[in-house]
């Protein structure tokens, strides 16, 4: 029986639900579209806003980012455990939390970009710290249920890859707005403008809420695992089981390094084009080329994964991206256009990991249930998310410290030659080395190849039947 036939007979809270299809894909797309309106704005412009508008030192901003992201990681796990302890409702287990928490999230996101003129340096530092911490905590309350529900929308490995692709397409569409249009709005005379940045944030806040509501309305949760009693100390046992779960270990480490590299590039690119190339407006072209690269990659992901497997396709793309960035490190006399074209090709190759990364997580969630018998979507996803937050913390901390270390000084009009060259080296060598590390982790240590991934849902379905039969037998006695 194929996935479509299975879904036709699925019941949630006693009601038959429609089969998996385009509506779910569009709904899941809208979820990440809403997420990334603010996430990409924050990762691309918040550090520059803090250094150039609030006049907080780059090193201090790095410390704020580090503390906030580490805190968010613990918030992810706490929220994931809380959601896993809730019963599935008629609207699902995860969707209701997206509905409830999206408005508080975007309001806090808007507050991050408020600039009150004439305040003290201490006020600006406190405002940045408090609003960023609160926004990150609320971000967990939406993204943990959003990411977790992918594993209960469908259990077909190829369809999960498709769902991951549509999620990334939502990020792509947000990137069109933030990466292409935002630089043309937020910069005036090659400098960040506080009022224009706040206006952009307000627009994104309205759009984000609309996207979250569309995600809530269009998606359907289908997979409901048997309810097993949770023993005392179950969380500790879950952690021990996860440490034995090799697919989980290596994919979360890979995602941590990926996030570290991608956010470091986003942060440093702003300084690279503003200082090294002397053309902050060219950031819009960077965003456009990266988006075109992803558009070209999207239709290739499903057929390539179907033929070769997620692990095989993603690791090949990572190796190509690593080699191109390492090449850029040595080609330090390029024009901005030449640099953008080469990074666009690297991004195209990297997309094959980015577009499948969330499908890896759904496979890992299944593997956890196969090993333990417990369905803990939000817990597993939240721990994976926590590692991404650690990557974000390291990216923010390392980014701020590295920018300061190469000699960047926001108080001067012209940067030193050493600082400018240091920024270029940072923007090329760091992603090249980090992408190479991910290739080695995924290609040689992650064990779920194509054959094992395709067999996993079959084995899991059989195990669920045995658990259900055992429960019926126990209740009958």
Poorly predicted ranges? 1-13
Kindly name the structural category: mainly alpha
CATH architecture: Up-down Bundle
Going by CATH, the homologous superfamily would be MFS general substrate transporter like domains
N-end to C-end Cα span: 32 Å
The largest β sheet comes out as: 2 strands, antiparallel
The SSE string, one letter per element, is: HEEHHHHHHEEHHHHHHHHHH
Strand order of the largest sheet: 1-2
Query: Count of DSSP helices?
Result: 17
Q: Count the E strands.
A: 4
What global shape is seen? globular
Q: What's the helical proportion of residues?
A: over 70%
The radius of gyration is 22 Å
Write the CATH fold name: Growth Hormone, Chain: A
Strand content: under 5%
Assigned CATH class: Mainly Alpha
Mean pLDDT: 84
Please explain how this structure is put together:
The protein has 477 residues and is mostly helical. It has helices spanning 3-8, 22-52, 58-84, 95-112, 121-148, 150-153, 157-186, 194-218, 234-243, 246-276, 283-308, 310-330, 336-354, 357-372, 377-405, 417-444, 450-476; strands at 11-12, 15-16, 187-188, 191-192. It has a single domain (21-224, 237-476), classed as MFS general substrate transporter like domains (Growth Hormone, Chain: A), CATH 1.20.1250.20. The protein has 17 helices and 4 strands. Helix 2 packs across helix 10 and helix 4 (95-112) runs antiparallel to helix 8 (194-218). It is globular. The two termini are 32 Å apart.
In short:
This protein is mainly alpha-helical and about 475 residues long. It has helices at about 5-10, 20-50, 60-85, 95-110, 120-150, 150-155, 155-185, 195-220, 235-245, 245-275, 285-310, 310-330, 335-355, 355-370, 375-405, 415-445, 450-475; strands spanning about 10, 15, 185-190, 190.
